[in-house]
Amino acid sequence: MGSKRKKKGESGEAKRYITRNAAVKKLQLSLRDFRRLCILKGIYPREPKNRRKAQKGDSTIKTLYYMKDIQFLLHEPIIWKFREHRAFSLKIKHAKAKKDRSKVQRMMQNKPMYRLDHIVRERYPTFTHALRDLDDPLTLCFLFSKLPQVQRTTLNMVNMCRRLTLEFMLYVIEAQALRKVFITIKGYYYQVEIMGQTITWITPHPFTPQTTTGVDFRIMRVFVEFYITLLGFTNFRLYHHLNLHYPPTLPHADIKEGGEDDVEMGDPERLASLNFPLKRNHVEDSNESETIDTHLLEEDETRLQEAREEEKKKKQQQNLFKGLKFFLNRETNIESLTFVIRACKGEVSWDESTADGNTFPVTDETITHEIVDRDNPKQTHLSRYYIQPQWVYDCINARMLLPVQDYFPGTSLPPHLSPFDLECHTYLPPEQKQLIARQKGEIPEDKLPLRQDSDSEEENERKKKKKLNDANIRPLDSFKTRTQKRKEKKRKLAQKEATKEQEKESKPTRTWEDVSREEEAMETQAAQNGKEEAPPEQNGKKAGTEEKPKQEKKMGVHRGKVQMINPHATEKQELEEKKLAIMMIPRKKKRVYHMLRRREKRKETGARRLTQKRLAIDHEKEKAKKAKKAGV
């Protein structure tokens, strides 16, 4: 018997995919609830290999999902909550139309609610998976914490985002997990390392962003709803990992006098200042164990050494501002600077009228740095440095304290370099190269060339000219000695020329006849020597008797010759080897090679363009300086 013939659209691509309208009908949900369910469960549209086959012959572009994902959603218990909420909205609509206020109040008290705990556990089976996916939740929660209260962003959601983000920042301060900071037009980029996982997020600038109609806040609100649950779980686990009390509270010594209510609430105003240590469940042991897994790197000693050096740099970065006291002026971003400085064991304070949470006044003589963001501040204290805020962020990225002379108020700041993906960049600015050399220890700290303004450069040039003029002024005795040396040189040259002429005169003049006679005598002597030589068999005895004992050669050290390597020949050989290697690449992999090569060429051209741009900028600066000098 022949096999049953398959019908069209019952196997292959057509069976694997399903359109959005068919999925909505299958789940018996509205389009709004279906979109919310897909966001919460992490299901996204898919692109088929052959759209015509997947859509059963239809060539129009439609939104497609995997059939497996839609069947998986059929057993989701949250679907029943969506249906209950739809019935509830219809009932309350009728009650409001009939103006039955008692019924409306009774129904609002019994409003159907749903929880997302089981979805978080389902999407993130381990805590490491949750940490890996924490970049987007933090970015969106930090954004919503700065938004104003409007109809599309409720006050409860904004307050919850603010609370969770503050809890996470307090954990980073206690764990000293901050690694990189970068300021852009979009906001502040932060990168932390928690349990071996790097987390990067962006925080907006400290002004309230304006909401636009071009952004669909309904979809973003669904994401925030899920991210709030995820951040609550992660914060709880992270706090207990460091033996910190959750929710965070201040120790009894730092709490204001207000009774037990303040202790239970945790004093949110002082917690929001990020300037106080948190209460711990019990005291930790002071002995810290090594955090490197050496058993994984025992075979490779170089990798083990690199890991130890990296760990040493991290510890140095964690204690970067230890023993330093900073005072922040009111025009600076107090929250960001407090978070960054306290994450490196620094002490921070500000004026009492600016915000709550200050720890020492501006008149404190132990303050080492005062951060100012204006041109000409009043420098009333000589015992501290007055610097701009960029110095703090550049020190954290460089993992060392940079010279403060480049960051004084009113001076032109050095470029704020990005600390992310330095290995991928083919172009490195000269400031970045100088910083890398300083980190490696190639340039000593005392001899580092500092950036200077045009006035200081002019002063240096004047000093150099003065030194040259001083060097040209010689004492009177030096002229006499120089004339004597010149006379001695002339006398020696005259003696050499006289000896050469005497040697030429002493030699007899040779003619062509003398040369020919010498050549004939040498030929006859060579012929006689040839006849006298006999084979060793005939005159072996004579040779044995007449031969003199050979003298052994004495050992000695002779000067050797250095083999000069031709760079052009080596370059030619390397090119030939590279061509041969390209020829040996299989045909299937050549496409990937050419794609990678095009990417490298694009990077090289971009780096070349940036170097030319930088040279042009430096040239313009030099021209402006020269014009300024000429005008003066």
List keywords for this structure.
single chain; alpha/beta; three-stranded antiparallel beta sheet; extended; 632 residues
Polypeptide structure, described:
The protein has 24 helices and nine strands. It is of the alpha/beta class and 632 residues long. Strand 6, helix 16 and strand 7 form a beta-alpha-beta unit. The model is unreliable at 253-265, 286-290, 448-455, 471-477 and 536-545 (pLDDT under 50).
Major β-sheet strand ordering: 7-6-8-9
Total DSSP E strands: 9
Oligomer state equals single chain
Shape: extended
Largest sheet: 4 strands, parallel
Number of helices: 24
By secondary-structure content and strand pairing, the structural class works out as alpha/beta
> How far apart are the termini?
106 Å
- Name the poorly predicted regions: 253-265, 286-290, 448-455, 471-477, 536-545
Please give the structural blueprint.
Blueprint lengths: L12 H4 E3 H8 L3 H11 L9 H4 L9 E3 H7 L4 H20 L3 H9 L7 H7 L3 H6 L2 H12 L8 H21 L2 E6 L4 E7 L2 E7 L13 H25 L18 H6 L2 H5 L28 H18 L6 E4 L5 H9 L4 E4 L18 E3 L13 E3 L2 H9 L31 H11 L13 H19 L4 H30 L5 H21 L7 H7 L20 H17 L3 H45 L1
Helix pairs in contact: 3-12, 6-7, 10-11, 10-12, 11-12
